[in-house]
TrEMBL record:
<dbReference type="Pfam" id="PF13561">
    <property type="entry name" value="adh_short_C2"/>
</dbReference>
<comment type="pathway">
    <text>Lipid metabolism.</text>
</comment>
<keyword id="KW-0560">Oxidoreductase</keyword>
<keyword id="KW-0276">Fatty acid metabolism</keyword>
<dbReference type="GO" id="GO:0019166">
    <property type="term" value="F:trans-2-enoyl-CoA reductase (NADPH) activity"/>
</dbReference>
<keyword id="KW-0597">Phosphoprotein</keyword>
<dbReference type="GO" id="GO:0006633">
    <property type="term" value="P:fatty acid biosynthetic process"/>
</dbReference>
<dbReference type="InterPro" id="IPR036291">
    <property type="entry name" value="NAD(P)-bd_dom_sf"/>
</dbReference>
<comment type="function">
    <text>Participates in chain elongation of fatty acids. Catalyzes the reduction of trans-2-enoyl-CoAs of varying chain lengths from 6:1 to 16:1, having maximum activity with 10:1 CoA. Has no 2,4-dienoyl-CoA reductase activity.</text>
</comment>
<dbReference type="InterPro" id="IPR002347">
    <property type="entry name" value="SDR_fam"/>
</dbReference>
<keyword id="KW-0275">Fatty acid biosynthesis</keyword>
<keyword id="KW-0443">Lipid metabolism</keyword>
<keyword id="KW-0521">NADP</keyword>
<comment type="similarity">
    <text>Belongs to the short-chain dehydrogenases/reductases (SDR) family.</text>
</comment>
<dbReference type="InterPro" id="IPR052388">
    <property type="entry name" value="Peroxisomal_t2-enoyl-CoA_red"/>
</dbReference>
<protein>
    <recommendedName>
        <fullName>Peroxisomal trans-2-enoyl-CoA reductase</fullName>
        <ecNumber>1.3.1.38</ecNumber>
    </recommendedName>
</protein>
<keyword id="KW-0576">Peroxisome</keyword>
């Protein structure tokens, strides 16, 4: 029987692309949703070339109507949505006292509101259809440790963690699982640029802070993400799995410091 589709927000780049590929390998048609047509087209070409069924949906997760249209398109093409991965994010390093209202709103809007928009849109359809479903929210360990230099992202990811647990409690009776995954530091293009670790020398310093002494690959994080969101672990809900080489136990690096060039040995 054909599996329902998996929607992956931000599925055209970085971790989202790796998750889309791994879900495709596991037999799910994937719907990749993000703002930029060029990200989606490039990813769709790659995934299609690997034999994966792909639909692209240009969609700003901050806009409810665009989210609804993306879920409509997914159902029209694949019949049913089975999985949702809320992976889209925006982030940049900024001193809290200098963060503008629009800067706060941009990051909160993408991370917290975007996750809510997609979760509610698919959740209410699953409930009305009497269908089970599974949602995975990509967060970061600083949702519970806090971190300097990214107060907007920390606050939004903490909100997503609280949302994850609350929806798991509310929707478990409908057969809907809701979980979160907190990856360690990955070298993806926009994250490395926006957060100040594009330089390999900075990456090497960061890797020294990780108990396993290396940064994470998108592939290894994607593998765990797919284990969690698919039906491999059907009794897990409301949880957050960490895949960070042990970094959070050491304390999340102060992002202000390495942008300012102060990250020591
Ligand atoms: C150490 C690693 C672990 C970290 C864990 C988490 C990592 C991640 O989340 S990585 C994700 C990285 N990927 C991205 O950020 C990609 C998407 N990002 C963006 O599109 C932009 O960076 C965005 C978040 C700013 C959103 O873009 P957009 O909606 O187009 O917003 P604007 O460009 O109009 O800017 C809105 C507002 O924000 C201010 N702003 C933007 N960048 C900065 C900055 N670097 N520093 C300070 N302020 C910034 C911008 O100035 C606008 O405010 P106003 O000037 O007041 O209008
Ligand atoms: N990189 C890292 O070290 C870490 C990352 N994470 C998390 O992992 C996830 C993936 O990050 P990563 O792959 O590194 O970064 P990317 O920048 O590659 O991914 C972010 C994705 O979000 C999409 N996006 C941004 N804004 C919007 C929007 N308004 N609407 C729809 N899509 C949007 C972007 O696509 P487009 O530009 O086309 O809109 C992009 O594909 C994020 O949730 C991030 O917070 C967590 C811990 C560490």
């Amino acid at each position: 029987m054909e599996k329902g589709a998996a929607i992956v927000t931000g599925g055209g780049t970085g971790l989202g692309l790796a998750i889309s590929r791994e879900l495709g390998r596991r037999g799910y048609p994937v719907v990749i949703a993000s703002r930029k047509q060029e990200h989606l087209d490039a990813a769709a070409r790659t995934l299609t070339g690997e034999g994966i069924q792909v639909l692209t949906a240009v969609c700003d997760v901050r806009d409810r109507e665009q989210v609804k249209a993306a879920v409509d398109a997914a159902e029209n093409r694949f019949g049913r949505v089975a999985l949702l991965v809320n992976n889209a994010a925006g982030n940049f390093v900024v001193k809290a006292e200098e963060l503008s209202p629009k800067g706060w709103e941009a990051v909160r809007g993408i991370v917290l509101d975007g996750t809510w928009h997609f979760s509610q849109e698919v959740g209410k359809r699953w409930i009305a259809q009497g269908q089970p479903g599974s949602i995975l929210n990509i967060i970061a360990t600083y949702a519970w440790t806090g971190a300097a230099g990214v107060v907007h992202s920390v606050s939004a990811k903490a909100g997503v963690l609280a949302m994850t647990r609350s929806l798991a409690m509310e929707w478990g009776k409908f057969g809907i699982r809701v979980n979160a995954l907190a990856p360690g530091i990955m070298v993806t293009e926009d994250a490395a640029k926006n957060l100040g670790y594009a330089d390999p020398a900075v990456q090497a310093l960061l890797a020294k802070k990780v108990p396993l002494r290396r940064l994470a690959s998108t592939e290894e994080v994607a593998f765990l993400a797919c284990d969690l969101v698919t039906d491999r672990h059907p009794y897990v809900t409301g949880d957050c799995w960490t895949v960070d080489g042990g970094l959070w136990l050491e304390g999340f690096p102060n992002l202000r410091r390495f942008v300012d060039g102060e990250l020591g040995e």
